[in-house]
């Protein structure tokens, strides 16, 4: 049946509670899907990944082996406390790591829920939140800041709260220049094709700000100061795995490979460089 999320208690104090509908969509459902996807596909994710070879390695076995890093620290923010805790946690554990999880100090009830023992697989599935289960929101009221200048403090770091600064620009081109001369944002949207082609960000969602998060087939993560690496589904497993380069050479072929050793000649160099070219080859060294 798979692991069921322990959501029988409130994820946040009632004074911080948002919509239970939103919590189900953006927190519980996405997290549950991450768990189920890993349980279904982990065996395939763990398999050695064969890679192409050059002429010099045609008789060898070349592959990438996925191994755990060992110990992983996950620091999750408060704005999606369950999703942004369990998303990377699933991938890190699936990759075989030991994980230290530090939820946000703002979402204390979520921390309490995550510290409880998970529901056993034989327990009936949870079809929706218990009354009061919702996503914690900031205590500050939604605020729109107008005529904001680029040098003001609110423009110096990412905002994880209900604050929307508005910067006036004269054209789309000026807006794109503004984006490109600053640190890369976590996500972009609107004026889709041109913005997508002329800017860079951790993720991109045209004409929407959320739905790309629901796809485990798309990586979620930042770039530059927004953070490096990504997760969701197999991307989580790969992010928390060491991709070990492996080449296994059969014994008894040292005479074939002796072209690498002195005395060095121009002919041997040409042959070796040709054999080392990066290309898929079905030839056999003679």
TrEMBL record:
Protein name: ALDH3B1
GO biological process: aldehyde metabolic process
Family the entry assigns: Belongs to the aldehyde dehydrogenase family.
Domain Aldehyde dehydrogenase intervals: 27-116, 141-242
Keyword Oxidoreductase: yes
Compositional bias annotation for Basic and acidic residues: 110-120
GO cellular component terms listed in the entry, alphabetical order: cytoplasm
Keywords: Oxidoreductase
Keyword Nuclease assigned: no
TM annotation in the entry: none
Location of the region described as Disordered in the Swiss-Prot/TrEMBL record: 110-133
A molecular function (GO) term: 3-chloroallyl aldehyde dehydrogenase activity
Alphabetized Pfam families for the sequence: Aldedh (PF00171)
């Amino acid at each position: 049946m798979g692991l069921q999320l322990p959501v029988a208690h409130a994820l946040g104090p009632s004074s911080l509670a948002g919509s239970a509908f939103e919590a189900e969509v953006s927190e519980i459902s996405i997290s549950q899907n991450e768990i189920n996807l890993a349980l279904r596909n982990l065996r395939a994710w763990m398999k050695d990944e064969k890679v192409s070879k050059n002429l010099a390695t045609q008789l060898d076995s070349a592959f990438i082996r996925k191994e755990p890093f060992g110990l992983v620290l996950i620091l999750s923010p408060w704005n999606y406390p369950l999703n942004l805790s369990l998303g990377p946690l699933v991938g890190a554990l699936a990759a075989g790591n030991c994980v230290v999880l530090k939820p946000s100090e703002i979402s204390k009830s979520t921390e309490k829920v995550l510290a409880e023992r998970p529901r056993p697989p034989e327990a009936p599935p949870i079809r929706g939140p218990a009354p009061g289960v919702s996503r914690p929101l900031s205590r500050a009221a939604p605020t729109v800041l107008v005529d904001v200048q680029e040098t003001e403090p609110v423009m110096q770091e990412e905002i994880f709260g209900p604050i929307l600064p508005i910067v006036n620009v004269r054209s789309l081109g000026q807006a794109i220049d503004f984006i490109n001369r600053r640190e890369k944002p976590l996500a972009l949207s609107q004026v889709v094709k041109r913005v997508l082609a002329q800017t860079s960000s951790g993720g991109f969602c045209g004409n929407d700000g959320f739905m790309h998060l629901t796809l485990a087939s798309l990586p979620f993560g930042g770039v530059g100061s927004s953070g490096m690496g990504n997760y969701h589904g197999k991307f989580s497993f790969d992010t928390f795995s060491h991709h070990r380069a492996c080449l296994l050479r059969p014994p008894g072929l040292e005479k074939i490979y002796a072209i690498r050793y002195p005395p060095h000649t121009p002919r041997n160099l040409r042959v070796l460089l040709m054999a080392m070219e990066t290309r898929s080859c079905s030839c056999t060294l003679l």
